[in-house]
Amino acid sequence: MDALWAATEPLTVRQMVDAMADRRLAYTTVMTVLDNLHRKGWADRDLAGRAYRYRPRASREEHVGQLMAEALSSAADQHAALARFVDAMRPEEAAALRELLDQRGRPSS
Q: 66 Cβ partners below 8 Å, 6+ apart?
């Protein structure tokens, strides 16, 4: 997913293999992983000639937000889970969260 998120355009399997040349991955391995990402709904693909071009279905930030929401919804005590999450934040992260919450509390103009 990191390579898809970093790309400025959809990538073919060959482009992905080339982008990760330092990892020496087999073409078929990358093709299988991309197919699995598509099947699971994490990546979209379009046929371009004889090859598929893959792109992320959501941005990294959207994906992380979805994971956080899923984790919170799975907690038996959501209040306690949120408290632990906030306790683990650095001051600048807490300030950013406070600002977002303040903005949500304001009526839209």
A: 58
Same domain, 46 and 6: yes
In one letter, which amino acid is 25? L
Residues 70, 84: one domain?
A: yes
CA distance linking residue 3 with residue 55, whole number of Å = 10
**At residue 47, what are phi and psi to the nearest 5 degrees?**
-80, 125
Model confidence over 51-84: pLDDT tens digits? 999 999 999 999 999 999 999 999 999 999 999 9
Host domain of residue 77: 60-105
- Classify each residue of 36-51 as buried b or exposed e, where b means 16 or more C-beta atoms within 10 Å of its C-beta: ebeeeebbbbeeeeee
Residues with Cβ within 8 Å of residue 86, at least 6 apart in sequence? 94, 97
The pTM score is 0.75
